[in-house]
Amino acid sequence: MDRKHLDDITAARNPPLHHDPAKLLSLEESAVLLAEQTRKHQELQSRLASQKLNEALKVSMGGYVADTGPMAAYREVQDNEAQLSSEED
C-alpha cells in the first residue's frame, strides 16, 4: 500500500519504537541469557530478603534499659506506693 495514500485515509500513526526490533537468537544464546537473568533475579531476591530481615532485626533488637527513662520513674512511683501501703498495714 502506498504511504501517501494511507496518510489520506487515516490520521492514525504507529507509535515510535522505544526499543530495538525483536532479534532471532539461537537456542544456546537464549539459554545463556535466561541463565544470566535467573542468576540476577535470585541475587536481587536474596538482597531484598536480607534487607527486610536486617530492618526487622533493628526494630526488635532495640536496646532497653529499665533503670533509666520514663519506665524507671514509673517504677519508682509504684515502688514508693507499695512501701507506703505496706507500712500503713
Q: Topology, please?
A:
Elements: H1 3-9, H2 27-60, H3 70-88
What would you say about this model in short?
This protein is an all-alpha fold and 89 residues long. It is built from three helices and no strands.
Task: Give a description of the structure.
This protein is elongated. The chain is built from 3 helices and no strands. With 89 residues, the protein is mainly alpha-helical. It has helices spanning 3-9, 27-60, 70-88.
The first-to-last residue Cα distance is: 107 Å
Proportion of residues in β-strands: under 5%
Order of helices and strands: HHH
Largest sheet: none
User: How much helical structure, as a percent, in the residues?
Assistant: 55-70%
Number of helices: 3
The averaged pLDDT comes out at: 77
Overall shape = elongated
For the structure shown, list the relevant keywords.
89 residues, 0% strand, elongated, mainly alpha
